[in-house]
Amino acid sequence: MKEAIDYFRGGKGFHRLFVLFKKRYESLGRVGGTVKLTDWKDEELADIAFYFGLSESELKKKGKVSLDQFEQQLKRTKFEHIGLQELLEAYFGESLVSKKEAKALKDQQQQTFLKSLQNDFPALYFWFQYLQNKSADTYWIYRWMEKSEQEFYKTVELLNVAITSLPEKLERLPMFSQRMIRNPHAFDRNTNLGKLWIHVLAVHRQEEGTVFIPTDSEGINDLLLQYNILRDDITNYVTCANLLAETKRGVHSMWRAATSTESVLNAPLRELVTLTSVYPENGLMKVWIVENSGVYSSILDDVPYAPIICTHGQFKLAALLLMDRLVENGCELYYAGDFDPEGLSMAARLMERYPENARLWNMDEASYKRSQADVDLPPERMNKLASIANIALAPVVSAMEIKKKAGYQEALVDQMVSDLRREIGKKNSR
Questions:
Q1: Tens digit of each residue's pLDDT (9 = 90 or more) over 38-59
Q2: Which residues sit opposite 268 in a β-bridge?
Q3: pTM score of the predicted model
Q4: CA pair distance 38, 40, nearest whole angstrom
Q5: How many Cα atoms occupy the beta-carbon half-sphere of 375 within 13 Å?
Q6: pLDDT digits over 335-365, tens only?
Q7: Residues 6+ apart with CB under 8 A from 361
Q8: CB atoms within 10 A of CB 34
Q9: Is the CB of residue 37 less than 8 Å from the CB of residue 64?
Q10: What domains, with CATH codes, occur in the chain?
Q11: Shortest CA distance to 79 belongs to which of 10, 4, 6, 9?
């Protein structure tokens, strides 16, 4: 064997050939198949051609080498008792393993590792069970696990501390993180620990066997809040007017004062989480929602007594929590957004969240035509329309796919004001 290794290492082209042989074996799991010799230099082909008893031009014309033929030729030399697999293993100093065998071995090692983690951290047993299913959302976790089991084990130790010390009352994420491991940023969203923490909680929260891993900021905020953890409760706010709110002590004096003076209220998440009930001051149990602050303020100029909410763009957790409280009281929510892919997506999301209570407000095809601006929607934005499956929005989606132009709420303010006056009626300003 030593003599054979010395011989083949002495030829310029054999190393390159053996590397290809090794890859072919790993792919097939046996000695077989062929490897191509395209783009090989003449000096690399010379030794291989001599080995087969061919001229360089004959070998170049063939353009490939069969692993079986190489092994058969090996039997015609003084190395006749050495097989190609044996030769390659000696040459590279390692056992040849097929990709299938390597995967099976890796899977076995991972399962063994996960079982050891289950024994060491029983509080996370539910999560390890989920990881064993190897769903798409766990691939990155397995890659990290493969990179360093020791580092992964240390991270799991921290997750175990966190899951067994969940706050019994509201606690801000930095304070929770500081209490757990003396690092207020340890569970930040951009850290591996923070990402794993969200994954653990999402698996723990699974409903009817379905696991949803949130990726957007508000989905993550919502998930954390279910475990009494606040990620941002000050800058996460929603604007509202003419709504009354109650706590365990009764009607909140700040909300009462705002309605009595027809004042706009910016309500941060910090205040909203203490509320037990929210409802319109006028008792009609209808609330209107817009996402544009300019439109919102313009409407209130003419209808200062309207129970109306402004989300300031995409729904923040504060807005969702406020709407949750309204829906719990049986309120109907009337939403008006821009006629662009993002605005329609928000409308669809609201109707999916509140299927019995959400209504569209001036978001029909006729409103789209009245609001249409000379703003072309580029293909990358138009492609987003394909994901909007809400039936009520289908006519607008079809019209936008034809026109490929956006429409904006500002053009519909007069109509919105007229709608509110008709629905609510006139009221003397206090």
A1: 888 888 899 899 999 998 888 8
A2: 237
A3: 0.72
A4: 5
A5: 14
A6: 999 999 999 999 999 999 999 999 999 999 9
A7: 288, 289, 334, 335, 336, 416, 419
A8: 16
A9: yes
A10: 2-96 (no CATH), 100-230 (no CATH), 237-424 (3.40.1360.10)
A11: 4
